[in-house]
Amino acid sequence: MKKLALLVPFTLMLCSAAFASESPIITKANWKQHAEIKEIRKIVEQIEVDIRRERLVLTARHFCYAEPGWTDHEVARTNEGKILRYARVGGSDDSLVTQTSYYDSSGRLRFVYQKTGHVAVGKMEKRLYFDETGQLIWQTASERSWDYVSEPEKAGLPFNPDKDFKEAKNGEEIPKGKSEKSYCRLTK
């Protein structure tokens, strides 16, 4: 009976160790090879391939600069209208930010790549990885980057790209076929 009492906890420990090895937590040592990160990379790569092969419809909106913030917006949609990529560009007098967000076929945010150039600080990069439930599972940032994102829902990320794209505003919208240089000077 004592042997059985010792055997059960040992067996449970082995089973839980085997289960944990199938889905290890993401660490600095394994993140590049982790299954969840690889899955997200496949989503991003497929979206980029579909854009290059013109399988997705690109739609853009541009605004005259009025204040620091997003001035250029572009979405890549399926023929059914589902947004798979949302790119925004903006900044201020001394900075430029490009943020590209990728969504899975169910419309869930899966990856955000943000690149910032700032006169005082230089270039910075950030990558945010989200699982299929929308939880932030990993992030990387360049050495000079801003703090890590602790609460993605409060970080201004476009979790609802359709709404964000439709409601985008920063100064007057530049009509299609007009250049920013000529149109925005006329409206000042």
What does the model show?
- It is a single chain.
- The protein is an alpha+beta fold and about 190 residues long.
- The longest helix has 21 residues, at about 1-20.
- The chain has one domain (about 45-185).
- Helix content is about 30%, strand content about 30%.
- The N and C termini lie far apart (about 90 Å).
- The chain contains 4 helices and 7 strands.
- A 7-stranded antiparallel β-sheet has the order 1-2-3-4-5-6-7, sandwiched between helices.
- The protein has helices spanning about 1-20, 35-50, 160-165, 180-185; strands spanning about 55-60, 70-75, 85-90, 95-105, 110-120, 120-130, 135-140.
| DSSP helix fraction | 25-40%
- Element-level helix/strand string: HHEEEEEEEHH
The strand line-up of the biggest sheet is 1-2-3-4-5-6-7
Cα shape: globular
Low-confidence parts lasting 5 or more residues at pLDDT below 50?
A: 3-21
Structural category: alpha+beta
End-to-end distance: 88 Å
- Count of DSSP E strands? 7
Number of domains: 1
Output the number of helix runs.
4
User: What portion of residues belong to β-strands?
Assistant: 25-35%
Largest sheet: 7 strands, antiparallel
What does the radius of gyration come to? 22 Å
What's the rounded overall pLDDT mean? 81
Per-chain topology:
Blueprint: H1 2-22, H2 35-52, E1 57-62, E2 69-77, E3 83-92, E4 95-103, E5 109-118, E6 122-130, E7 136-141, H3 161-167, H4 180-187
Antiparallel strand pairs: 1-2, 2-3, 3-4, 4-5, 5-6, 6-7
